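Subject: two folds for Thursday's group meeting

Dear M.,

Sorry for the delay on this. The cluster queue was jammed most of the week, so I only got both jobs back this morning. I'm pasting them in the order they finished. Each block is the input sequence followed by the predicted structure tokens. Could you check whether the formatting survives your parser before we put anything on slides? The first protein is the one we discussed after the seminar.
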Amino acid sequence: MVTSINDNNNNDIDCFSEFVFLFSFLCDINLLFLVIFYRMIFSNKLPLFRFNLTVESESTLLSADKYSLFKSLISHFYQKKEMSNMNQRPVMERTQDSISMSFVSANVDELDPCFMYIQILKEILSSFEFEQDPTEKDYYLHTALWWYTSSSSLCSTVNRALRMMDVSLMIRLGYFIRDLLKNIDEIYLNKINEWKSLGLFKVYRDQGILLKDFDQLKNSKGGLLAFNNFLSTSRNRSIAIFFADSNEINSESTRVLFEITVDPSISNVSFIDLQSISQYSHEEEILFSMQSIFRIGDIQFDEDNHLWQVNLKLTSDNDPQLQALTEFVRNETFPQKKGWYRLGEVLYKLGQFDKAQQVCRVMFEQTNNPCELANIYHLLAMIKDSQEKYKQAIKFYKKSLRINRENLSSTHIDVGASYTSLGLVYSKLGKLRKALRAHEKALQICTPDSPSKISICCNNIGLVHEERHDYIQAQHSYEQALELQQKHLPEHHPVLGISYGNLGKIQNLIGDHAEALASHEKALHIFQRSLPPNHPYLGITYNNLALVYEKLTDYSQALFYYQKALEIDQSSSLGTTLTNIGVIYFRMNDHQQALSYYNKALTIFKKTLPTTNHPHFAALLNNISKLNCSEKFFE
């Protein structure tokens, strides 16, 4: 009898022994009744935990005090059975890093890169036609949702790849995620009227959260929270709390229970009830589609369960912040580009260079089209350029250029883009003749109906002339660029600020300091109107203003603007600012301070410049040499 009820489950044996032992203290009921009763509980045929036992129906067997203990005991063992079932299910992820969240600030400029990545990935997968279908013949015997709910390894792999932004794995799982998204959307649309008729309902999700992320969550109260993967929740709060109990919490994390209010009448976010689909119907699971977005409400500590409860509300389709966010992401993520190349460009723009490279590797495997290969090489070159691997960047730009010249007209826009990019990298390597030739070829390709491209080429040519100390030619090129930009750009466009800054530098170098000061002040005004206060362009402009005041021998004003530049500048130009401050102190005869700043600049240049032959490096060494000679003279 005992072995027949354990269903080969050791947990049932342990539970049954404990059940019989404890229950024997409560009442005189024969062993056969206990076995049958236990069998009903643990086979889910008697859901005592789901309804209230009444005194009229059960208290006739027990005294009042024993009945109270009986009720608690049954609840305890039913819950223990459910917990046992859930422990056997690895699909419901319970570790503290099992989901990926993005806190969406009201300032879209501070948007979490992971949010944009998932948003674009979702768009790509929803519309992408995969050339290769899954190779396993059994795949089409079931829906993607069936596979997702039946295979714990597949479920965890998909969500882990989304959480870790594992681009390579996500691309290989792309066909499955596409099918899963479609399955969820189709089921949701078929059931949408039923959901709307039910009205408001709540679901729950436990989570272990790192303390630093929890602080960000608290600071984001009233804002938006996006779950970047597929979100499993339960309509049963007790089950969700159990999962919270099972989370591994350490000194760097805290326990959180999300209470999510859903109003199906105001949102079209796809979600489905898995109770009739899943093998684990007792979990009452509601599955939300990838990257569902919620409004963050109250956050309170639950003393009884020793966890934080965070109230969330599924966003309305008319939520103004959500609409602004959607529009921003669409505009900033190359909507004119298609497929994986779009994802690669987005990752590049977000500074996710390694992941962008993963996309390039996958794209190389999937195409033999010459134009597509040229674009991939160009993107790969841009990545290497940003990683300051300039020689590799040149190699890939040349490959892209060669393919385009073989397959496109000599005046095609892509050919011009390759020449422009090559010119910029040559300048970074100090190869100024090659840089000038490349930019001049790019200019020759531009047509009169492309003033923006012509102005870019003129500006780039001016930069090379400036590096070569041909200031008259540089001034001419900068003025050409500025004249074109003033005709087709808004009054406070940042590009105008850049051109004013470039022109101001040349005016300062040729001795026209009053004009230089006016140009830099125009640039500063534009940047202050159009950019955040810590933007690098402001740091560069402060640096340029300091250079003019230095020429005017107004050293106090020069130091003032250099210090303002230091407050902002953390880029490779930091070395230039430190060098310039050293020059000011040298001219003020404070040689100790001058040497201190020169040494700081030298440390920066060793880390950021590709070669010691770079002009900036040579100029700094020359300044140090002058300082040493001056010291010896005074000795």
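Second protein, same layout:
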Amino acid sequence: MGRDRQRVFTQALHEIAEIIISGENPEEILEKSNRILGRTLNVDRTLIYHISFEENRITGLCEWLQKDLPEIAPTKGEYTSLDMFSDAFREIRTTKQYLESHINNVNKHFLANGADTILHTQLNIKSLIWYPFAFDEHGYYLFTMNQIMEQRRWTVAEISFLESAAKQISLALIKIKLLEERKKAEDALRTSEGRLHALVQTIPDLIWLKDKEGRYLSCNTMFERFFGARESDIVGKTDYDFVDRELADFFREHDRIAIDAGKPITNEEWITFADDGRRAMLETIKTPMYDDRGELIGVLGIGRDITTRKFAEQALRESEEKYRTVADFTYDWEAWCAPDLSFQYVSPSCKRITGHTAEEFMADRNLMIQITHPEDRPKLEEHYRTDHRRNQKDNVEFDFRIVKPDGGISWISHSCSAVHNEEGIWLGRRESNREITDRKRAEEKIKQLLENKELILKEVHHRIKNNMSTIKSLLTLQAGTAQEPSAVAALRNAAGRVQSMAVLYDKLYQSDGFDSMPVKYYIPSLVDEIVSNFPNFSAIKIEKTIDDFSLDSKRLQLLGIITNELLTNILKYAFTDKESGSIHLSLTQTDGRVSLVVQDNGSGMPESIDFNNTTGFGLKLV
């Protein structure tokens, strides 16, 4: 090779180097380099392709044609699939060597899939060389030199020139790829920083960063409101430039505490916003910041406004204090028992009632069972097994006894009901226990007094009943010995009246009350007693129609005497000339008025009887 030719190649490589140094656009570098290659090697057509095995695609990147050969047609981008030239592309990928082919000496790797026909016949390429460069895991780039007008053999110097150009362009592509990746990284970093900055600026918390000397490095918008200054006016300054010395000393002290601790520390502090004068309670977290070498950068601070929460907590404490004051000072023993039977709250009054403190009940959930009287313990255990183990909404009440530490026994009235929160979740049961020992003793005394009174009443009833029976018997006996008919009648009538009062007294004693009684309970029995005293009562049919209502004992006594007089007269005189008869008794109440009607089918009342001027004692009573 002549020295002139060598200078041409050197000059071309120098031009390509200048293009690479001055350019960062890969398309522009490839385009200009391809043109220099074509002009320097004096070929009919030069192309640069990118071969992608991952996408199975051939992409034409640039093409150069000899201007004085208009019959040479461009072919850039004509082929998009690797299949047609797959054998040649695989060979290059494997060997990383160039391929050369001529119309009268076709390379064997172009014989498959009719590649030789396309290249040397359809495209009329007399000679070609494919020179690969810039290999990576996905594929490679390819210099394609085509001779259309005549065959050509490539010299060693030309191949060497192509190799040098390929190395330069490969380095350029690597440089460009690195620059692109760097640019992407820088863009991503700027995007990330922008997002982080926007996030920090929009967060409602106060955020700031100081160096280890206490000078501000950055802050967000909310912190600007605190100092009443822009970030640009805050950076480089300290707390002493914006707040009074006492507060600045407080801030600096906690900065040092965080630095000395080497970990985040939390404190609460009141501040006043400079922009509007608003006071706020901050929960501040200060964290020492270190670089990748472990050197201290400064302190990151985050202050959250907890004013509303603090006021709410204060209100809650005051509310809890009020309710606890009420609960703690109740006379009864109040408690809250959770679903697992543990006590969540026990009022102090338990000490007065049981002899055990609230702390003892809170520590031992079985203490309630242990202090229960052995005879009542099964009842309480069953209550805890059933009512306390399920969400039973009904109120449960019962009494039981406990044994105090000194051995004394006290009665407890227990009442409990289910407790739920606002969401309806069952939280256990609220218990209320009242000592009722004095009440139980009073009830027992009253019970004994009632039993004694009942015995006395039974004895009095027995004696009165016996006395009335004795009076009736004496009157009946007297009537049996009397000779005068009027005397006999008077004595028997008196015995009947005593009998009606005895029946009334007996019924009143057997009833629930002593001052009144249903007429259906008294009158039918009285009628049966009166009728049974006459020898012919079995021949007399008695019909009773009695309403269901009650009368006081005084009116019942009068009603009984009237009934006795009427029935006695009927049974004596109405059926004297008959073998049988019927009597109908009707007792009704309408609008508060009582009506008694007694009818019979006997001989009737004599016409000579004047009810207004009767001499009979019975009719006078009626």
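Two things I noticed about the second structure. The chain is about 45% helix and 25% strand. The first helix runs from residue 3 to 22.

Cheers,
T.
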